[in-house]
Design goal:
single chain, alpha+beta, Cytochrome p450, 5-stranded mixed beta sheet, 3-stranded antiparallel beta sheet, binds protoporphyrin IX containing FE, Insect_CytP450_Detox, transmembrane, Cyt_P450_CS
Length: 514
């Protein structure tokens, strides 16, 4: 009787598990049939076990594959759970995909996901972001955002960030007063500063994130909420890769109603200030610029909110991460920090100034190299993904080529390029001096260094980000020494070193007034 029950259970288990097994492994011959070498996929996991085990960042697994194939193949077939994708190993091919043959790969993973959801129906405001849009929408969004961030306009806005830096230093002083030793959470500090700098640049008003108020700041809370929501898209796209029907059953929203309403109201209030000329930015902010466009008949109120919100959310996390990592590397390396301080203080003396002007900030070459070294070692965008917008043939060697179908996803492993010892000696060390011989610009032109991507879809916030990050660092190191404190030595560094900077966690550092 028991034996019979046992066989029945085994039989039913087979009936249930066999279709799942077949479903998950059905595609595993996909690349072999097309004559492309593929990294051996595992059932359930595909080429990346950590997608499900979550024991380490996906980027390390991409890096493992990159190292295995880098001198042997231009690209290899991989499986994102069961979805066939391509890992682009050859940097020249990456250049072709991102830049010279852009027409064939114009979609990014983000905008392709948004396209499938019929843009504008859900997430009205996200539709104004160049990051999330495609086709004509993308061209329009990108051109409006780029026009608001031209070098001339950035020069005008620069004074606003100087105000943000001043508020940062006042806030730091206030925070350090009671603390002993002066240990502060660097992530919290950076988030407050970046929210302040972006808010004054975009809306022309003070977000109040660097005030002494003990109450949680609503602007920061809403920004973080929106960033968290876009992050959870990763989990959602994983489920969609296993079961494409999932995305139809559960239409994920990128920006919740509450966040959308908050920023719509915020934009309205800021516009009121503009109309009554109570604008503290002296009309140098992005909203004022867009408002003049609105008067010439181009933009609706919804577009104004959408464009402003997109600019905040497309760059907030990236600037925060770059700034937090930079500060962390300075705290770990007193030699670099001292050398940087000498450059900053000597320039201050020479120019007889405390705050750095636009041109002066650009001329601080060691600071420039420190920021680029941070972006090399810890690129905030670890890999770029592109999607074939039409069927396309890629030459693998003189005699061999492979046909890629429309919709094929290609992964460009930026982190792995930045950590390739053939290009960057001692790739895992923080050495800003490496850029003394070869300037970051030259490496970017050779497409071996891609902190801001390359080609028509490269980052449009690059110049603004570099200026904001450099202004904050110059202010900090000119007045404080930054050191790792005991809490960080025995815990947090592990999390940071494992690359995934946990922006919801803490990074305790010591700030000591000079
Ligand atoms: C240090 C800070 C930043 C870093 C490291 C960074 C990095 C990048 C990278 C690597 C890409 C290309 C992604 C790809 O090719 O798939 C990108 C795209 C983009 N970035 Fe940034 N970014 C930063 C700040 C910003 C800021 C402040 C803004 C907002 C003004 C912004 C807006 C965008 C947009 C809209 C795109 C998509 C462009 C398009 O598809 O046409 N970024 N960023």
């Amino acid at each position: 009787m028991l034996e019979c029950l046992f066989f029945q259970i085994v039989f039913f288990l087979h009936i249930i598990l066999l279709p799942i097994y077949l479903y998950l492994t059905w595609n595993f011959n996909y690349w072999r049939k097309r004559g492309l070498h593929n990294a051996l996929p595992l059932t359930l996991f595909g080429s990346f076990p950590s997608i499900l085990t979550r024991n380490r960042n996906l980027l390390y697994e991409i890096d493992r594959l990159y190292r295995r194939y880098k001198h042997r193949r231009r690209m290899v077939g991989i499986f994102f759970v069961r979805q066939p994708q391509i890992l682009v190993v050859d940097m020249r091919l990456a250049h072709e995909i991102l830049d010279t043959n852009f027409g064939a790969y114009e979609l990014t993973a983000a905008c392709s996901w948004m396209r499938h959801r019929r843009l504008n129906k859900l997430d009205k405001l996200a539709a104004y972001s160049a990051l999330w849009s495609s086709g004509e929408h993308w061209k329009l969004n990108r051109s409006v955002a780029c026009a608001a961030l031209t070098p001339t306009r950035l020069k005008q806005t620069h004074e606003l960030w100087q105000g943000s830096c001043k508020r940062l230093m006042q806030f730091l002083e206030y925070k350090c007063k009671g603390a002993s030793p002066e240990a502060l959470d660097a992530i919290d500090l950076v988030k407050r500063f970046v929210a302040d700098a972006l808010c004054i640049t975009i809306w022309g008003v003070d977000a109040g994130t660097l005030t002494r108020s003990k109450k949680p700041n609503l602007f920061l809370q809403m920004t973080e909420r929106a960033v968290r929501q876009t992050r959870s898209l990763r989990r959602y796209s994983l489920l969609s890769a296993v079961m494409p029907v999932f995305s139809k059953l559960w239409p994920f929203r990128l920006i919740s109603n509450a966040v959308e309403n908050y920023f719509a109201q915020f934009t309205n209030d800021a516009l009121e200030c503009h109309r009554e000329l109570r604008n503290p930015s002296g009309m140098r902010d992005v909203l004022s610029y867009l408002y003049t466009q609105q008067h010439t008949g181009h933009l609706s109120d919804e577009a104004l909110t959408g464009l402003c919100m997109a600019m905040l959310l497309d760059g907030f996390e990236e600037i925060c991460s770059t700034l937090v990592y930079s500060i962390y590397y300075f705290a770990r390396d007193s030699r670099v920090q001292s050398k940087l301080r000498v450059e900053v203080l000597q320039t201050q003396q020479r120019e007889h100034c405390t705050a750095f002007g636009f041109e002066t900030l650009k001329s601080l070459s060691y600071l420039d190299h420190c920021v680029f070294e941070t972006l090399r070692l810890s690129p905030t965008v670890q890999y770029c993904r592109r999607i074939c917008s039409r069927a396309n043939v890629i030459q693998l060697s003189k005699r061999k080529s492979v046909q890629l179908e429309e919709g094929t996803v290609l992964c460009i492993p930026v982190y792995s390029y930045h950590h390739d010892a053939v290009i960057f000696c001692e790739p895992n060390s923080f050495i800003p001096e490496r850029f003394d011989n070869t300037a970051p610009k030259e490496l970017m032109e050779r497409r071996v260094f891609l902190p801001f991507g390359t080609g028509p879809r490269s980052c449009l916030g690059k110049d603004m980000s570099l200026l904001v990050v450099k202004a904050a660092i110059a202010s900090l190191v000119s007045e404080y020494t930054i050191r790792i404190c005991s809490q960080t030595q025995h815990g947090y560094s592990q999390t940071v070193d494992s690359f995934l900077l946990n922006m919801n966690g803490k990074l305790m550092l010591e700030f000591k007034k000079l």
